[in-house]
Amino acid sequence: MGFLESAVVVYLREIYYPNGFCFPMKIISNTVAITEFLREIATIIMLLCIAIIAGRTKIEKFAFFIFSFAIWDIFYYLFLKLLIAWPVSFLDWDILFLIPFTWVGPVIAPIINSITMIILTLIIIYFVEKRKNVKINFAQWILLIIGSFIVIFAYTEEYMRFMMQYFSFTDLLTYSDSKKILEKAFQFVPQHFKWFVFSTGVAFHLVAICLFYLQKKKCKDLILQKQQFKTKTILLKKNNIKHNIY
Question: Which residues contact 129 (CB under 8 A, 6 or more apart)?
């Protein structure tokens, strides 16, 4: 899937950016813009299907979804690098996502998010293999969700601030005048990425992951202690029985 997405981007850049991708973006037709938007939705649906098929429980399905998303994103950039030698550096600006608004940021930012998702997946699967009942608790979910909103804000704030000079939030959300919105969107040039905001969001994710790991490790240790206690109790009973017999 990473290669398929990178192949589409190669085609688009050959047509619209033969001299290399840069901002402001070249104006594309409404049809191409809508197709690109729908392609992203289709990609998310495919990733969800992978997760639903691969996972047995809800937590496994969640883990496989974020893992698939992360691998897809990393290999997307890897194949672009192999095919067209882009990005030149990890700090090159890119259009990251279009749902529900345009996300922009340096290439390294989504890679950091992907690595975080992979770490969380590996921890979940590790504990699932050790014990069947693994859940992310309410506080950990809150941290993950807040962190995600903060990261999304870092990706979309500059674009939204630019666009809301000309359109209302509702206009942008509903795409009420798609032609005018596209015309303005193609004039946008990102200047400064909100690294502090982004880092804060990532920190929320890492705290949630650490809390989840420590909680499950403690549970695992308690289970091992109980098993060891049961084993010792059984051995003591056997020894007592043998002693009574003799």
Answer: none
